[in-house]
Amino acid sequence: MLKFPEKVTVKEVGPRDGLQNEQAVIATGDKITWINQLSLTGLKYIEITSFVNPKWIPALADAVEVAKGIERVPGITYTALVPNLRGLERALEANIDEAAVFMSASETHNLKNINKSIEDTYPVLQEVVQETINAGKSVRGYVSTVFGCPYEGPVSVEAVVRVADRLFEMGIGELSLGDTIGVANPRQVTEVLKVLLKRFPAEKLAMHFHDTRGTAMANVLASLDMGITVFDASLGGLGGCPYAPGASGNLATDDLLYMLEGMGIHTGIDRDKLIAAALFIQEKVGRQLPSHSLQTLGSCAG
Predict the structure, then answer these.
(1) Mind telling me which InterPro entries this protein's record contains (predicted)?
(2) Residue ranges making up the domain that contains 186
(3) Which of 194-230 are b and which e, b meaning 16 or more Cβ less than 10 Å from the residue's Cβ?
(4) pTM summary value
(5) From the candidates 10, 114, 226, 241, which is the catalytic residue?
(6) Is 241 one of the annotated active-site residues of the chain?
(7) Does residue 299 have a pLDDT over 80?
């Protein structure tokens, strides 16, 4: 019998991970409206944007305006991706609650995503983590390609452990393990977590699955059974990694909520308000989003 927790934290990454790869240009005001809707759903954590150089991700060039324009709800952590000290300056100016730093477990993906080797990435992130902590903010880490790389294929768990060790040594509070191209399966998830949980407590780890091959929900179940209670998801299944070919489709927040609710696992999220927010952003991107929940409504925008 699988073991399931009584409650789970769902971290909404749609405004950043969802929109970063969209072809449609979403107006700044619409982003702000959407995040404000998300803030009323019961979510306690929303990743609102990225302070990466706008030339790399033009869709999020309005990061400061979005972060300053939203209505902050007490009790919610508003976080953003921060690549370097220049990005951190903008993020702190915009008064984010938390900075998320990111790198890959595979060398080639790291080079294409960050334009640096893994070894050369560490000192850059160390500066960001230290300055963020000095500013009184928390720091989250992302490690990509944990379960496979689009360029190198399988990634060893030893490579993941090396990166995780360094990020925790820097002072991050939580590490999100990314299945960047959606290749993981439940057995692999279990085997990787067996290794990592010998080194790090379960409450310090989160899972970030993509549903590229339809295995994200099964991988959530395997993670729950291993004691993981924090999951990243993107409303409607929006988005993917622009540097990982074929990686469209994050785990959909609305589908995840449906499964967890049905299993009696508490999330604190209001399903009706979440679906309303999903329909809003679906209309703005102008296409049917891939989540099963939205498809059952039979609505198609655009």
Answers:
(1) Aldolase_TIM (IPR013785), HMGL (IPR043594), PYR_CT (IPR000891)
(2) 9-297
(3) eebeeebebebbbbbbbbbeebbbbbbebbbbbebbb
(4) 0.95
(5) 241
(6) yes
(7) no
